[in-house]
């Protein structure tokens, strides 16, 4: 009789465990990161009798998490790529929408401005035409500065997003560290059994981390160690090495990501080191789109201003004076950005060459001036080409790509560096210098005889109008209209490529997730069948106990 009781009792226990596990699966069907579980059973040791070995039932050995490490890795990899692409594309769309609008903005303002120049060339003495030109010039300047301000607002928004994302990364890394310790404690407490729900929670945190930044996971026993970038440690053992959003040493206007070393020091990372996730997408957008777009706009404004001012200076005003500066190009000289690690606060400054070809020499690149072993070196950052003045210890008047460098009044310290952004903020400072329409130098000008020409001709205005189609930018390969069209086209091509890549990455992410869910996800139909199966097992086991009771009662009756 006792064996029947034991068989029934053990069957009830196993069925109850199965029902509990199945119910747990059903209630967590929509829980993010949950992996379905399964009760694992085995037969208990048989009992030897003269008639042979008789089974004693079954026991529940463990509750297994249905999990595939490879598929989970595929989900994390596709998640971080999709998040990076999505962030990049979303940021990209804002710039593309601004540049692609042909009804307002720089393109129509540029066209209207040169229409005004042509009108003055046709009627150089007409006050209304001159006033209209000044109005259109101001409108052009406003559109250029507004566009630049939009890009600058994007830059400030990026800084805020980078700071927020870094805080979120650190928070999740700390949470992973906490669950690491909980997993170790739980496994040690319950006879080495895996704490499945905690394991799921940790995997879900890793997925969420990958949405923020690409993370490398290294398993060490029951612990996950984490790294980002090129192997920079984020979590090792029980220590979280937090990322930081810091002001870049080279350019304090931008936030860079830094990691913390074991000694507690902060080391700034280049933007291209951080890959994947929202953080990687933000940094990629800044270096791949925002920086070059703002530089292109700045070069257009600066190149137009330099060329227009140079031609305007060759003409004469209504009062017979030589033409002055038509466009205001901002402060001159411009001060380079001194690296925060420099020992000497002395600065480097730049001005722009007034040579006729200067506008065409301007590039889209930033430059770095370094001082080492008593020599100056100028590096064009876009291609890494270096230039040195002659003699190398004297930077004064050294020209590169239409930029004239000036040395500081005090000699820099060994290893000092300076960042030069010759066109980055040119659009911000672009304005109209002339206030009086009579000061427009539409006529020819002869210094020996200022009365020559006067208001009777618009020869210089005609020369100014020709700048609309004259190829004086980018080494004499583009006009102002073509330069802006190229800017719009570059942004549009990148936006289209980003959207195409986003669609592909989203599909890959969905496929990886579906494959993982095909193994680990909860199938309600399957769980309903399991419920019925365990219910029948429970009822049958209970019936065994009833039979045992009946037999026992019968034996007692016989004994009486």
Please give the share of residues in helix: 40-55%
Strand content: 15-25%
Number of strands: 24
Average pLDDT works out at 91
Outline: elongated
End-to-end span in angstroms?
18 Å
Instruction: Report the total helices.
Output: 10
Class from secondary-structure proportions: alpha+beta
Largest sheet: 5 strands, antiparallel
Poorly predicted sequence stretches spanning 5 or more consecutive residues: none
**What is the radius of gyration?**
37 Å
Neighbour order of strands in the largest sheet: 15-22-17-18-19
Give a written overview of the molecule.
This protein is an alpha+beta fold and 560 residues long. Among the domains are: 2-66 and 521-559, no CATH class; 161-285, no CATH class; 331-425, no CATH class. 50% of the residues lie in helices and 17% in strands. The strands form eight sheets. It has a five-stranded antiparallel β-sheet, with no helix packed on it. A hairpin with a 2-residue loop joins strand 7 (232-236) and strand 8 (239-240). It starts with a helix and ends with a helix.
Topology of this protein?
Layout: H1 2-27, E1 37-43, E2 47-49, E3 52-54, E4 58-65, H2 69-100, H3 106-122, H4 127-189, H5 196-212, E5 215-220, E6 223-228, E7 232-236, E8 239-240, E9 244-247, E10 255-260, E11 266-268, H6 277-312, E12 315-316, E13 327-328, E14 334-335, E15 337-338, E16 349-352, H7 358-361, E17 367-372, E18 375-380, E19 385-387, E20 398-400, E21 403-406, E22 417-420, E23 431-432, E24 443-444, H8 459-465, H9 480-520, H10 524-559
Antiparallel strand pairs: 1-4, 2-3, 5-6, 6-7, 7-8, 9-10, 10-11, 12-24, 13-23, 14-16, 15-22, 16-21, 17-18, 17-22, 18-19, 20-21
Helix pairs in contact: 1-10, 2-5, 2-6, 2-9, 3-4, 3-8, 3-9, 4-5, 4-6, 5-6, 6-9
């Amino acid at each position: 009789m006792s064996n029947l009781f034991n068989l029934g009792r053990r069957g009830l226990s196993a069925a109850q465990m199965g029902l509990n596990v199945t119910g747990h699966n059903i209630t967590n069907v929509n829980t993010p990161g949950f992996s379905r579980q399964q009760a694992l059973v085995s037969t208990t040791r048989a009992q030897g009798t003269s008639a042979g070995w008789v089974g004693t039932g079954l026991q529940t050995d463990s509750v297994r998490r249905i999990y595939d490490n490879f598929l989970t890795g595929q989900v994390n990899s596709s998640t971080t790529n999709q998040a990076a692409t999505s962030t990049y594309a979303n940021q990209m769309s804002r710039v593309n929408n601004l540049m692609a609008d042909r009804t307002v903005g720089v393109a129509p303002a540029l066209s209207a401005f040169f229409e005004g120049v042509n009108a003055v060339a046709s009627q150089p003495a007409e006050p209304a035409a001159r006033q209209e030109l000044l109005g259109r010039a101001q409108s052009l300047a406003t559109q250029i500065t507004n566009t630049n301000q939009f890009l600058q607002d994007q830059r400030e928004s990026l800084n805020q997003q980078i700071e927020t994302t870094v805080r979120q990364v650190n928070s999740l890394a700390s949470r992973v560290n906490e669950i690491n310790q909980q997993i170790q404690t739980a496994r040690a407490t319950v006879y080495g059994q895996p704490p499945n729900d905690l394991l799921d929670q940790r995997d879900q945190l890793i997925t969420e981390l990958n949405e923020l930044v690409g993370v490398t996971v290294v398993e060490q026993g029951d612990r996950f160690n984490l790294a980002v970038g090129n192997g920079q440690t984020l979590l090792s053992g029980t220590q979280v090495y937090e990322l930081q959003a810091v002001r870049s040493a080279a350019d304090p206007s931008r936030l860079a990501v830094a990691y913390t070393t074991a000694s507690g020091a902060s080391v700034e990372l280049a933007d291209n080191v951080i890959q994947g996730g929202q953080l990687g997408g933000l940094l990629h957008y800044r270096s791949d789109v925002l920086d070059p777009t703002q530089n292109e706009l700045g070069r257009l404004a600066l190149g137009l201003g330099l060329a227009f001012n140079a031609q305007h200076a060759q003409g004469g005003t209504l009062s017979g004076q030589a033409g002055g500066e038509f466009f205001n190009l901002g402060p001159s000289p411009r001060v380079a950005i001194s690296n925060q690690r420099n020992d000497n606060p002395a600065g480097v400054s730049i001005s722009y060459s007034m040579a006729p070809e200067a506008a065409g020499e301007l590039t889209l690149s930033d430059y770095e001036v370094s001082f080492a072993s008593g020599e100056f070196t100028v590096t064009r950052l876009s291609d890494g080409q270096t230039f040195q003045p002659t003699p190398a210890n004297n930077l004064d008047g050294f020209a590169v790509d239409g930029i004239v460098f000036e040395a500081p009044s005090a000699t820099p310290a060994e290893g000092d560096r300076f960042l030069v952004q010759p066109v980055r903020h040119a659009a911000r400072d672009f304005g109209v210098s002339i206030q009086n329409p009579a000061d427009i130098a539409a006529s020819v000008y002869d210094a020996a005889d200022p009365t020559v020409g006067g208001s009777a001709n618009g020869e210089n205005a005609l020369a100014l109008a020709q700048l609309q189609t004259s190829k004086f930018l980018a080494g004499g390969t583009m006009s102002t209209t073509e330069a802006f069209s190229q800017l719009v086209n570059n942004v549009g091509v990148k936006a289209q490529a980003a959207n195409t890549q986003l669609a592909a990455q989203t599909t890959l992410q969905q496929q990886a997730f579906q494959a993982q869910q095909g193994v680990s996800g909860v199938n309600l139909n399957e769980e309903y069948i399991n419920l019925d199966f365990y219910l029948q097992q429970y009822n049958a086991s209970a019936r065994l106990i009833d039979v045992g009771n009946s037999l026992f009662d019968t034996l007692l009756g016989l004994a009486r």
